[in-house]
């Protein structure tokens, strides 16, 4: 069960809904310790007095705010509790906004909100109103001694409190280069757009988060377990040589060709899957079993180029056939000569 962060209430207007805030995420990072390579002794983090260079016990450490260089105001745990007792007990909703208007850049940490005693009716009411309206409650909440901006959202039957970043914590993308919104200006044609949309349709699937795994972490664990099994518990991996640069410039990718190939692969995968189930694959466009309309005819210049390419291909094929015929003749002659010698 997710751990309890605090117990309090959701408030908006005169509504008061008792809730329990529970963690909605866990970190699966691998924990690596610092070691002394000479004797594999652990290297710890020490609290050091920067003036004397000596370790200091935690009971002598206090929190201080430097209001000017070298001058501090000391703060105790009780000072933090007295700052705003009510703020540490409530999710205070300031207003409601369209949930779709919130940029993903603002979301940070999710929490579950569990209904408290005698809070079932208010919980269910708020959940249904948010679901029907498509809105999110924007609130302020204090967690671990720090005030946060938060969004109150609905996920299935659960109310979620998603901690957000304040506006001054989100960098504006003012100096970031992005292509113009005019597709023609960046060379995107209607056919490419159609193929891209078709590829997205082919690759669309239900959202099943359990199918996505941290394969990098799993691979690291596999290496660690293999070394444990081999008894290599103190082996250090030497730094590998960086691959030499190829010296080649950036490749120019034919976007249309890449899209067409991707769509063909996606359709092929679906046909195999449907064939295994005895089902039928529905056409992407048009009705019945009619194939897609052929692409528009190329321009005259393109037709000339295509014709020239076809002629060159034909000449190459003819040359290749002649070469094969000559090789076969030489092999036949060599075979007859060897037969005479054996006779």
From TrEMBL:
Keywords on record: DNA damage, DNA recombination, DNA repair, DNA-binding
BP term (GO), one: DNA recombination
Coiled coil: none
Biased composition (Polar residues): 310-319
InterPro entries (alphabetical): DNA_bd_Ku70/Ku80 (IPR006164), Prok_Ku (IPR009187), SPOC-like_C_dom_sf (IPR016194)
GO MF annotations, alphabetized: double-stranded DNA binding
Transmembrane stretches, start-end: none
Keyword hit for Signal: no
UniProt region (Disordered), positions on chain: 262-343
Pfam families for the chain: Ku (PF02735)
Highest taxon listed in the record's lineage: Bacteria
Quaternary context: Homodimer. Interacts with LigD.
Protein function: With LigD forms a non-homologous end joining (NHEJ) DNA repair enzyme, which repairs dsDNA breaks with reduced fidelity. Binds linear dsDNA with 5'- and 3'- overhangs but not closed circular dsDNA nor ssDNA. Recruits and stimulates the ligase activity of LigD.
Family membership noted in the UniProt record: Belongs to the prokaryotic Ku family.
NCBIfam families in UniProt: Ku_bact
Name of this protein: Non-homologous end joining protein Ku
Organism: Caldimonas thermodepolymerans
């Amino acid at each position: 069960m997710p751990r309890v962060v605090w117990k309090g209430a959701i408030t908006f207007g005169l509504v008061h809904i008792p809730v329990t805030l529970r963690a909605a995420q866990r970190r699966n990072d691998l924990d690596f310790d610092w070691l002394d390579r000479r004797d594999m002794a652990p290297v710890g983090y020490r609290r050091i007095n920067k003036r004397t260079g000596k370790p200091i016990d935690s009971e002598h450490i206090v929190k201080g705010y430097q209001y000017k260089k070298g001058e501090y105001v000391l703060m105790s745990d009780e000072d933090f509790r007295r700052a705003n007792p009510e703020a540490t007990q409530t999710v205070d909703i300031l207003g409601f906004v369209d949930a779709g208007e919130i940029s993903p850049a603002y979301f940070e940490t999710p929490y579950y909100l569990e209904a408290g005693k005698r809070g079932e009716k208010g919980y269910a009411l708020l959940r249904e109103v948010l679901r029907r309206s498509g809105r999110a409650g924007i609130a302020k909440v204090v967690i671990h001694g720090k005030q946060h901006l938060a969004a109150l959202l609905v996920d299935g039957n659960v109310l979620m409190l998603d901690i957000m970043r304040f506006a001054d914590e989100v960098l504006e993308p003012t100096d970031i280069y992005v292509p113009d919104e005019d597709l023609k200006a960046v060379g995107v044609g209607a056919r490419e757009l159609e193929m891209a949309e078709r590829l997205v349709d082919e690759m669309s699937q239900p959202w099943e988060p359990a199918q996505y795994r941290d394969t990098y972490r799993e691979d690291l664990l596999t290496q660690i377990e293999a070394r444990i099994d081999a008894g290599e518990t103190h082996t250090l991996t030497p730094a590998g040589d960086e691959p030499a640069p190829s010296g080649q410039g950036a490749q120019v990718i034919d976007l249309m060709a890449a899209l067409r190939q991707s769509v063909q692969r996606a359709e092929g995968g679906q046909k195999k899957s449907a064939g295994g189930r005895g089902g039928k694959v529905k056409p992407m466009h048009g009705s019945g079993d009619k194939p897609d309309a052929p692409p528009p005819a190329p321009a005259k210049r393109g037709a000339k180029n295509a014709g020239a390419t076809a002629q060159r291909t034909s000449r190459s094929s003819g040359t290749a056939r002649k070469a094969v015929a000559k090789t076969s003749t030489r092999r036949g002659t060599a075979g007859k000569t060897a037969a005479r010698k054996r006779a």
